[in-house]
Amino acid sequence: TPDILMDVGKKELDRLTKEKINIQKKLKVCDINSYVKKNKSFYYNDKKSILTDLKKIQKRVKNDVYSKYFHGILKDKDMYDIKSTPVESNHAIAYYISSDLKNSKKGTFYINTSKPETVNKHELYVLSLHEGIPGHHYEINYHLKSEKHDLLKFHNFVGYTEGWGLYCEGLGNYENDIERYFKIQYDIHRSLRLIVDTGIHYFGWEYDRCFQIMKDNLTFSDEQINKELLRYIDLPGQAITYKVGEKTILYLREILMKKGFSIQDFHEIIMKIGPCPLEIMLDKILNNVK
Fold first, then answer.
1. Strand 108-111 relative to strand 81-84: parallel, antiparallel, unpaired?
2. What CA–CA distance (Å, rounded) separates 171 from 129?
C-alpha cells in the first residue's frame, strides 16, 4: 500500500543516512557531501581516462564479484562495450543499450564524458555494477541467449529489471570509503523515490515539499531535481520499482538460502525465471522451489 511504501522509504532513508554519517566520522570531515564534491583529486581531467578506468572496473567486477556470486565463466563475447554518450544524449549520466536478437553487436554501457571534471572516479564502480555486470548487461544478455519468446526478451518489466540492477549494487566489493559513499547515495536516491512518488500521487504533496526533501538528502543541482520530479509526476509508480524490486529479491534470497540454496543457485533461479511481474516471480519461487 502507499502507506507501507512511504514507511519503508523513511526507514531506508534513516538507515542509509546513519551509514553515511559513519563514513563522515571515519574520514573526520564536517560534511561528507561537500568533501566529496569539492575534492578535485576525485575527478577527471580528460575523457580517455574515464573510459580506461571503466574497462579496469569491468575486469575487477568480473574477477571479484561475478566469479564469487554466479555460476559459469564469462568469455570475451559475454562482455559489454564501453563508449562515451553521443552528443544528443548528453543529458544522461550513464545508461545501457542492449544487443539485438541476433547478437550481432555487443551491449554497450554509455557514460557521459562531455565534462570530465564533473565525473567522480569513485562513482564509476557502483554505476558499472548496475549498468554492466552483473546488472543490466548480464541480465539482458542472459535472456537474449535463452529460448524465451522474443516478446519476453525485450519487454521491460521494470520491477524485475531495475530491481535486479539495484540489487547488484549491493553485491559489490567496495574498496574505499568514497566508493561506499556513492553506493549509499545511490540507495538514498532510490529510497527517496518511495517517499516522493507516493507523496505526489497518493498523499497530495505539493511540488515545493517534494523538491525540498530531495534537496536535503541529495547532492543534485536544482535543475537535476526538477527533472527527477517531472519524471515522477509523469510516470506514476515507475520510480518505486527499483527499491520494491530490490527488496523482493532480497526477501526471496533469504528464504531460499535458509532452505540450503547457495547464492549462486539463487541468482541462477532468478535468471531462469526471467523478466516478469514481481508477483509472478514471488509465486514461482515460493510455490514451486522446494
1. parallel
2. 8
pLDDT for 64-109, tens place per residue?
999 999 999 999 999 999 999 987 677 778 999 998 887 788 999 9
Q: Quote the CA–CA distance of 185 and 249 in Å, as a whole number.
A: 20
pLDDT tens digits along 145-167: 888 888 877 777 999 999 999 99
Give the CA dihedral 121, 122, 124, 128, nearest 10 degrees. Answer: 150
Q: Which residue has the cell 534537496?
A: 215
The answer to whether the beta carbons of residues 197 and 12 sit under 8 Å apart is no
* Per-residue pLDDT tens over the stretch 124-143: 999 999 999 999 999 999 99
Amino acid at 158: V
Q: What is the DSSP pairing of strand 94-97 with strand 108-111? A: antiparallel
DSSP H helices, the chain, are: 2-27, 32-38, 47-61, 67-69, 124-131, 136-144, 150-154, 158-169, 177-201, 207-217, 222-234, 241-258, 263-273, 278-288
Residue 94, classed as helix, strand or coil, is: strand
- Could you identify the residue written with the cell 533469504? 254
Instruction: Name every residue whose Cβ is closer than 8 Å to that of residue 55 and which is 6 or more positions away in sequence.
Output: 82
3-state SS assignment for residue 46: coil
| CB contact at 8 A, 131 and 174 | no
Among 52, 39, 50, 182, residue whose Cα is nearest residue 113:
50
Q: How many whole angstroms separate alpha carbon 264 and alpha carbon 176?
A: 26
Distances (CA, A) of 144 to 61, 237, 249, 272: 21, 27, 21, 12
Q: How far apart are CA 36 and CA 229, in angstroms?
A: 24
Contact 96, 127 (CB under 8 A): no
pTM of the entire structure? 0.95
* Residue length of the chain: 290
